[in-house]
Design brief:
Helices cover 54% and strands 12% of the residues. The protein has 338 residues and is of the alpha/beta class.
């Protein structure tokens, strides 16, 4: 078995390959050209495993190495930095360190999304960027009207009215692009059995279900619901020392799932009386932010068990049976596949 550490950059890639006892077999720095990299691995036949840090450029490299029959692993950038700290740091040293850590099975791995989900997930994330820009354009229009104390853009002076027209045109274009992405995703996702189970859960509509489905990827990679809560950023980190317990906010995990579950929690509280009663009770005892987080955490637990067991939602929330059920309108089907 050969082990290769790959330090990937935009224009170059440093590669260091060792054998089963850690002896260097080959090392080099190549341009990020598919032909050059394929030639490197062609010259090293036999079982081969490689690792690259989880930066935003690994997609094309994985596709290339799969064709070369190389088992590529994705290293968690944050934890690798803690393990492989060195006073002298170069691309060649980083690649050598990665190779040795891989040989010793000490690589903290990040999840590598499946090929079938990858492009759909990135398309959905692009939609969120467009939604943010559309909201910014609307906010810019509102600020402009407030600045001149008018109700409509037609009441603005000439140059401010030009700004308002540009903001309006920008928002119109962005909304058109958002709808185009949603239509494309709908064709790929709406009839999937796991999505049909999700859209019956309180607070979860089609777009939130898209996010959950694509960001989770494979629910079975979480050994327990507690691990799933942690990945969704629904539980605080801890910093215990000297007999004192302190909670802290943590950015470890998936921020898109955190946004999705908090959005679902708001909608669930709005439209379901029993959930609203539970939320109000928690809010009186723990405060509004914690109560909202607890609702989001409970919804995450429901999602975890629905996806894990491939079972329809049982109309229960925090051990309470809900009296209200979602209407049978798109995208929900009459009988969610079990």
């Amino acid at each position: 078995m050969l082990y290769s550490g790959l330090d990937l950059h935009k224009h170059t890639i440093a590669i260091h390959t060792v054998d089963a006892v850690g002896t260097c077999v080959r090392r080099t720095t190549l341009p990020t050209e598919r032909v050059a990299i394929a030639r490197y691995f062609d010259a090293l036949p036999g079982p081969h495993r490689a690792v690259v840090e989880s930066t935003g450029m690994w997609y094309w490299l994985r596709d290339l190495l799969v064709a070369q029959h190389v088992d590529l692993r994705l290293g968690h950038a944050k934890y690798l930095k803690a393990i492989s700290y060195a006073k002298v740091k170069t691309d060649a040293i980083d690649a050598a360190t990665l190779a040795q850590l891989l040989r010793a099975e000490l690589i903290p791995e990040a999840h590598m999304i499946s090929d079938a989900q990858r492009e759909l997930r990135d398309c959905l994330r692009a939609r969120l960027i467009l939604v943010t820009r559309a909201l910014q354009a609307r906010r810019s229009m509102t600020v402009l009207l407030e600045k001149y104390n008018v109700a409509t853009p037609e009441e603005l002076p000439a140059l401010p009215r030009l700004q308002a027209d540009l903001f309006l045109a920008q928002r119109t274009l962005l909304l058109t692009q958002i709808r185009r992405i949603e239509a494309e995703l709908r064709g790929h996702l709406v009839d999937r059995p796991d999505l049909q189970r999700l859209v019956w859960i309180p607070g979860i509509g089609a777009r939130t279900a898209y996010t959950l489905l694509l960001e989770i990827d494979d629910i079975h990679r979480f050994p327990s619901v507690r691990h799933f809560h942690s990945y969704c950023r629904l539980v605080p980190g801890s910093q215990d020392s000297g007999g004192k317990t302190r909670h802290k906010r943590s950015k470890d995990g998936n921020r898109y799932l955190k946004i999705a579950f908090h959005h679902a929690a708001i909608r669930a509280v709005q439209y379901f009386p029993e959930i609203r009663a539970v939320y109000q009770d928690w809010a009186r005892r723990k405060g509004t932010p914690i109560a909202r987080a607890l609702v989001a955490k409970e919804l995450a637990q429901i999602v975890f068990f629905v996806l894990t067991k491939d079972a329809p939602y049982n109309d229960r929330f925090a051990s309470i049976t809900l009296t209200q059920r979602k209407p049978l309108t798109w995208p929900r089907r009459a009988n969610p596949p079990a």
